[in-house]
Each structure stands twice: as C-alpha cells, then as structure tokens.
Amino acid sequence: MKVKPFKNEPIQNFNDKKIHAKQAEALEAVCKKLGKTYEIMIGGKKVKTDSKLNSYNPSNKTEVVASFYKGTKELADRAIREAAKKFAQWKLVPAVERAAILFRAAEIARRRRFEINAWMIYEAGKNFVEADADTAEAIDFMEFYAREMLRYADKQPITPVKGEENELVYIPLGVGVVVPPWNFPFAILVGMSSAAIVTGNTVVLKPSSDTPMMGRLYYEIMQEAGLPAGVLNFMPGSGNEVGDTLVSHPLTRFVSFTGSMEVGIHINKLAAEVQPGQKWLKRVVAEMGGKDSIIVDSETNVDEAVKGVVTSAFGFQGQKCSACSRAIVDAKVYNEFVKKLKDMVSKLEVGSATDNVAIGPVINDSARKNILSYIEKGKKESRLLVGGEAADGEGFFIKPTVFVDVKPEAKISQEEIFGPVLAVIKARNFDNALEIANNTQYGLTGAVFTDNREKLEKAKEHFFVGNLYFNRKCTGALVGGHPFGGFNMSGTDSKAGGRDYLLLFMQAKAISEKV
Ligand code: NAP
Ligand code: MG
Questions:
Q1: pLDDT single digits (tens) 112-148
Q2: How many domains are contained in the chain?
Q3: Which member of 26, 98, 179, 204 lies 3.0 to 4.6 Å from 118 by CB, making a disulfide possible if both were Cys?
Q4: Averaged pLDDT score across all residues of the chain
C-alpha cells in the first residue's frame, strides 16, 4: 500500500463567517436528534437492558443529549467472551486491510466533521475551536496509526546469523479493554481504540459515562468503514459497576486506560491479580492526571507569557490533563505578570458552549462542586485575584479563577483540580522556579518562557515532565509532532501519537529457520 507522508489535519478558522455558519447549521441539525436511545453493541448485535444512562448537556443541564442502555456485569463478561472469539479471526486479517479501515474511517470523520463537533459541543461543553481540534486530533490518530501499522508490518531489521534465515514479526495481544475519559471525548477514545484495533486486537470499549455519544459516533464510523462486526464492542455503563468485571476478566489481555490517578491505580492493581484460567500477565497502559506548571522567567516578554498561561489554563475550562494549573513566576516580573494576567482573565466571557464563548461549562455537577470546594480552600490558603465563584446560567458555569501568592506546598498547588483555577506562585529565581515545578507527584506537561538559552538547556535537563514546551503554551499536543504521555503519577508514558505507541498493543515473535 502506497501512502502519502502523515500530515496534521488543519484546525478550522471559525472567524471565517462561512465556517462559523456551517458549525451553527450542524448544531441545529444535531439538536433535532438529541434525546434518542442507543443500544449496547456486542458481537455486532444490539443489546438492551433494564436501566439507562443519560448523557446531559453541561451548558443546559436538564437537556438530555442521548440515552444509553446501561451495561451490566453479565454483559461485560459476555462482551469479553465475544471479543475473544472474534480475535481468532481478526488476528489473521492482514495489516494492510486493517490499516485501510482506519484510512476510510478518517475520511468519514472528515466528511462528518461539523456534525461530530456539534455532538461534542452539546455533550462535553467544548466551544467550536476546542471541539474542532478534538475531532482533528482523532482524524490524526487514525491516519498516523494506520501508517505506523504498515511500518511495523514491514520487514524488521535483525542481525544476520550464518546458516539461518531469521525474521521478527509483530503480532497482536488479544482482547483489550479500552477506557477513555470525557475530556477529549473523541480524540482519546478514537486514538486508544484505533491503535488496539489496527494492531489486530479486538476491543471492548467502555466510554466515559459523561460522553457516551462520542463513542457511539466512533462505533458508527468504524462500521461504515468496513470493520467486521464484533471487533469493536461498545459497552456504555458505569465504570464502578462494569469496570472491575472487564479489567479482572481472565480473557482480558490488556487494559488501555486514560483518566484520573485514583482509577488508574485501582485498575493497575486489579489487573495485576492473575485470575483462575488466566494465561498471561495483563498489560496495563494508564495515562493519568497532571498538575502542570509554566515557568515565567525574568528574561522574557511578559505579554507573551501571560497569553500562553491564559490559553493553557483556561482552554476548555482548564479540563485538560495538560492544562497549566500553576504559573511559577520570577519575583522580578511577578507584579507586572499578575497585573496583566488579571486584565486578561477578567475579560474572558463565560457561557454556553453552543454560543461559542471562551469559557463554557464544566462537565457535570460533581465536577462543579469539587472545583468550588477547591476554590474555597484557595481562599483560605492564598489570595484571590479574580473569579472565585460560580457564574449564572443553566449550565455548570464557574468563573475563571486565579489565586496569587500561592505557597508551593498548598493544596491548590499540589492536587489536580481539573477546572478553571490557576495558582500563581512567586519564585526567587530560575533555579527556585524549577525546584517548585518538580515538587508534585505528577509529571505530565510543562512550559518555560525565557529568552535565555542557558536556562532553556537547564530546563531540558531538570524539568521532569513527559511533554516540555519552550516559549509557548503547554496544551495542544499534535499527533506525530508531540508524542504525548507523562512521568510519575501522570502515567506510564505511553507517548500516544508517537512511534513507540503501537508496540504497547503487540508482542514480537522471532522466527529462525536453518537453511
Ligand atoms: P475518571 O473518572 O478516572 O474516568 C475515566 C474512565 O474510567 C471513565 O470511562 C470511567 O467511567 C472509568 N472508570 C471509573 N471507574 C472505573 C473502574 N473501577 N474500572 C474501570 N473503569 C473505571 O477520569 P475522567 O474524569 O473521565 O477524566 C479526567 C482525568 O483524566 C483527569 O485526571 C485527567 O488529568 C486525566 N486525563 C489524562 C490524560 C493523559 O493523557 N495523561 C488525558 C486526558 C485526561 P465512568 O465515566 O462510568 O465513571
Ligand atoms: Mg454530559
């Protein structure tokens, strides 16, 4: 198969009135489809159960986006068994054919782009550009992993041995349980599932209970692209209720998880127990939380730094694992930074995602409560600069909030809040800033704003994060260009969107023949 080199899908410019209008039309069209009920899909068959799970619009909290029959423990068991049966066939399908399905799926997602964005705007509360970037990233993952599969399916380099003909081939693992989060409801779900499928595994996908519709769209797209029934099984349901059955099942070969540290630790532990009848140690990929810092050095353009911090801290309401939740600012520029930051944050508009404002809602009521409780903690621990309360409206709105003079050890400086809350910390100098940046249990993203080359070199050496950025925001990793994954409690550093990623879904077989 001949393919063009991978290129990132461009993000659309919604300042262009025509493009904006297309998105608005798609929102209207999708609005007419809200509130429908969808089945669980096991082995290509629709399954209904006694109870349902509703996905709500966080901008308008009583509006049901879609309803799903809710998975049970019994169905979780059935889904894994069906996937195990299907694996016997799917693993024999040549890599070229598997890759071709992803290329077709990427094309379908391109065609349905505004529609996918629209569902995401309703279901997750992303504004237009955040939703479009998410869909673009999903397309990138499919295009990138399809090419990667072709590379791994090619002849692999191996040292010649006299009198033998040797080869090394990559084969799939088996049944994978894929558990994505709601915050990149399409991109991460599509990336994790597509990587597992293209490498020849079969999958039970349990979408986040906040954004199951995005999983349903992926399911539809993969069927249309020609994926045989049963390779992908779609199982909405509460993580608490069906999660343990899926993870601990003796036929489960690997678990691919992205979400919170607490759930990641739980899954890792449970997967480590060998069940009766289980013939392998399960592989667990767990990408978890972050508490990401941007260092603002004294030798930098403060305006640029403020822009970078605001974009990283408040894009999608700070609900990104990569979001900047701590700005660590050199004492020499601290006052200037704080003043300019206040000006910029005060101007951010809060409102419904469908109105495409800068700051939409947070995902659900428990997130809202949790974030507001951190804000109350922040008021006790440090000084509130701007925001600090809920905002009016029918959704889960919180004003973008900044605390200043935050101590490096304070709770709001250490724990992942996952909302529009930024802690500003004063550093004595650059070395002190680096020390503070490394003082959490996480290690996902980070950025440094400085014009000083030596300081950048020092940061390369000492800033302990999986994704480090210089003189730019710390969010918006691109597939291929910024392979993504974190250190320490941020996860297993799987580097999604990088050349090593597919290896996590395969095992290598060395074959040697005497000639
Ligand atoms: P979460 O609460 O941990 O949930 C993630 C997924 O795990 C959901 O599908 C959830 O299902 C499921 N789950 C819950 N309990 C489970 C169990 N016992 N067994 C199996 N699955 C279970 O995380 P989230 O709120 O969706 O996402 C936000 C978190 O993800 C943040 O911490 C963020 O930093 C992290 N994140 C990390 C990355 C990265 O690349 N490092 C990327 C994005 C997000 P239910 O929805 O049904 O509970
Ligand atoms: Mg919702």
A1: 999 999 999 999 999 999 999 999 999 999 999 999 9
A2: 2
A3: 26
A4: 98
CA angle 362, 364, 365 (to 5 degrees): 110
Domain that holds residue 139: 22-288+493-514
> Residues 137, 287, 381, 416: which is the catalytic one?
287
Q: Based on the fold, state whether residues 405 and 448 are members of the same structural domain.
A: yes
From 125, 75, 62, 18, select the one nearest 363 (Cα to Cα).
125
Ligand 1 mean position, distance from CA 208 (Å)? 7
Residue by residue, DSSP assigns 213-269 as HHHHHHHHHHHHTTPPTTSEEE----HHHHHHHHHH-TTEEEEEEES-HHHHHHHHH
CA of 282 relative to ligand 2 center, distance in Å: 32
Same domain, 273 and 312: no
Going by CA atoms, what residue is nearest to atom 12 of ligand 1? 239
* Closest among 140, 148, 192 to 11, alpha carbons compared: 140
pLDDT of residue 402: 99
pLDDT at 306: 98
Residue of the CA atom closest to atom 40 of ligand 1: 287
Residue of 256, 258, 284, 415 to test ligand 1 pocket, by largest number of atoms within 8 Å of CB: 258
Q: Are residues 237 and 385 in the same domain?
A: no
Do 196 and 253 share a structural domain? yes
Which ligand lies nearest the alpha carbon of 360? 2
Residue written as token pair 């939740």: 325
**Separation of alpha carbons 14 and 26, rounded Å:** 14
Q: Which ligand is nearest to the CA of 284?
A: 1
Confirm whether 5 is domain-assigned: no
CA atoms within 13 A on the CB side of 78: 15
Residues of the chain with pLDDT under 70: none
The string of pLDDT tens digits covering residues 33-56 is 999 999 999 999 999 999 999 999
The reply to whether 31 belongs to the active site is no
Chain centre distance of CA 56: 20
287 belongs to the catalytic site: yes
With a Cβ cut-off of 6 Å, ligand 1 is lined by: 179, 181-184, 188, 206, 208-210, 238-240, 243-244, 247, 258-260, 263, 266-267, 287-290, 321, 416, 418, 444, 486, 490-491
